[in-house]
Amino acid sequence: MKKTAWIFFVIGILYASYLLLLLSIPYLEISRGVDFLKTKQLIYHIKHWRYSFYIHVFSSILIIISGLFQFSKTILNKYTRIHRISGFVYLVTTLLISGPAALVMSFYANGGYPAQTSFVLLSILWLGSTFLGYYYLRKKEYEKHGKWMVRSYALTLSAVSLRLYSYLFNVFQLTLNPVDLYILLSWASWIPNLLVAEILIKRGLVNCILSNH
């Protein structure tokens, strides 16, 4: 049962990554009139925001896919080199590239202070949990390392859940004005993910994966 659930999870994440890739391709034009950037005309001229946006957009898929390899017991126990390389890519890209870019972007988020507060908290928690995952890895405390990486990846997947909830709200025609809807999405994109991560940790998922570390 667990194996089947894992297979569906992997397929779901890979499909979501494919959709994110499709959404990212138009931004290769580096033009202010593309999709989401149409809502950012007043700040597009701000260089640190603009650079952060493109960095975050083009690195997000790499983080999602590299992070996925961290939670396969088979890869961890039989293909440790893949686990280590993908883990290195995940840590470096999150801590030094995409995470800082996301933090810069969060101060300029649509929706005003409520949404900005949400995304600032998300960015700080994402960077913090990832750093703690690295910290405990260096100390060879693998159980704590695994737990913090689960939390980190749950926050990574906020990029997926944000778009999923946005799609579902459109399907069910949720009657909220655009600003209120975006504020709701900003909080819903990561809080449920973190709650699910804590439930999985409490149920011993990490201990199961690391049992043969």
UniProtKB/TrEMBL annotation:
Provide this UniProt record's keywords sorted from A to Z: Membrane, Transmembrane, Transmembrane helix
Name assigned to this protein: Membrane protein (DUF2306)
Q: Which InterPro entries match?
A: DUF2306_membrane (IPR018750)
Q: Which organism is it from?
A: Fluviicola taffensis (strain DSM 16823 / NCIMB 13979 / RW262)
Instruction: List the transmembrane segments.
Output: 7-28, 53-76, 88-109, 115-137, 149-169, 181-201
Task: Please report a single Pfam family linked to this protein.
Answer: DUF2306
